[in-house]
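Standup notes
- DV: blocked on the single-chain target, sequence here:
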Amino acid sequence: MDENIHFRAFGITDIGQMREHNEDAIGVATEQGYMVVADGMGGHNAGEVASAIAIDEIAHHLSFGSGSEFSSESAVYSPQTLLLRDAINAANAAILDAAKRDEARQGMGTTVVAMQFSGQRVAVAHVGDSRLYRFREGFLDQLTTDHTLVQEWVTRKLYTEEEARNANNKNVITRALGLVAELEVDLLEELVRSKDLYLLCSDGLSGMLDDDEITAVLREHGEEPETAAMCLLELANMAGGKDNISIIVVCVDEVVAGQDDVSDETLDWFD
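- DV (later): unblocked, structure below
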């Protein structure tokens, strides 16, 4: 575990109320300081294969992978953030390779959202519509932007946020692992504060609960990650549980200042 950040985390994945099997997968590695949620897709149970490959490959790469060669990005992002990106790219390649070797798995894919603590910072990488939220001083912020058709329409001001939430095609994904060899991964780094809460989730949660409902749970139970995660899961299932539901809640108990401590501001947004 990173000695600069003391945190607790709890993750759970659930089939929901309407699916026949669970295509989500999660990874929580507190000793290495990283958390991952993957939401698989594809016929013949291939979605659960893709999400499992993603979790396993990311874990392997973060444990044994080497850093990226020097590039212009090295001046923008920390080595840890670039390693997280490389881990997702390695997972993408592994999924494509597995699909080539098994015709039944062709077209399988998965979303991914991953975070890892390093120093006083958190590195974030994501592809698809699984999300990372930060709850700080009573306010909930979505740190990732969904890679969906509807989100593109919101960005272009063709849809309002409310129209997007109620759209029939809101789950059409524009980016995912397993679709193309050259994958675009969104990256983010920011400083962490003591008492910050982070929530990683698949759209089985975010599609069932709005920000106010998530905020209420984190405000009341955020200091107990397991309680908060179980409460969010129960509410999502009560709201219909239309998809698999994956949740990881991370509570930052303390951030210890170190030599690399810098001003308290977001360092950089997307790749």
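- Follow-up: Confidence is low (pLDDT under 50) at residues 260-271.
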